[in-house]
Design brief:
Blueprint: E1 14-17, E2 22-25, E3 35-36, E4 39-40, E5 49-52, E6 62-65, E7 68-69, E8 76-79, E9 82-85, E10 95-99
Antiparallel strand pairs: 1-2, 3-10, 4-5, 5-9, 6-7, 6-10, 8-9
Length: about 100
C-alpha cells in the first residue's frame, strides 16, 4: 500500500480519506499512477467475491469501501482478477478500487 507521507503537494494526484482526514497518493514509486479498476458484480449484501476487469500489479491496490481505506490486506485477497473480502460488503457500500494494470 502507498503510505500517505506527503499531503496535497502541487502536481501530485491524490485522494482524501474523510475518515482518517489524510490524503492517499495515487502516485507510485516508479512515477506512474494507479487508475480506477472496474469490477463486477455490484455489492448485493450476499457476495464477498468480485471480478476485476483486469489483473493489477501486486502491492499497487488501494481499496475503499464506504469511504474507508482498507490499509490491511488481511481484509481481502486478490488472486488474478478475483477479489475476495473477508466480510460481505453491504448493498449500500460504495467500493472503489485503484491499481496499476499488469502487463
Amino acid at each position: 500500500m502507498i503510505k500517505p507521507e506527503t499531503y496535497g503537494d502541487a502536481g501530485k494526484q491524490n485522494i482524501f480519506n474523510r475518515q482518517t482526514k489524510q490524503y492517499i497518493d495515487l502516485l507510485l514509486s516508479d512515477g506512474t499512477f494507479n487508475s480506477k479498476v472496474p469490477f463486477s458484480p455490484a455489492p448485493d449484501g450476499i457476495n464477498q467475491s468480485f471480478t476485476l476487469d483486469y489483473e493489477i500489479e501486486p502491492n499497487t491496490e488501494q481499496i475503499w469501501i464506504g469511504g474507508m481505506f482498507l490499509f490491511d490486506s488481511g481484509d481481502y485477497s486478490i488472486l488474478g482478477t478475483s477479489l475476495t473480502f473477508d466480510f460481505v460488503p453491504l448493498i449500500a457500500d460504495k467500493i472503489t478500487i485503484f491499481g496499476k494494470r499488469k502487463v
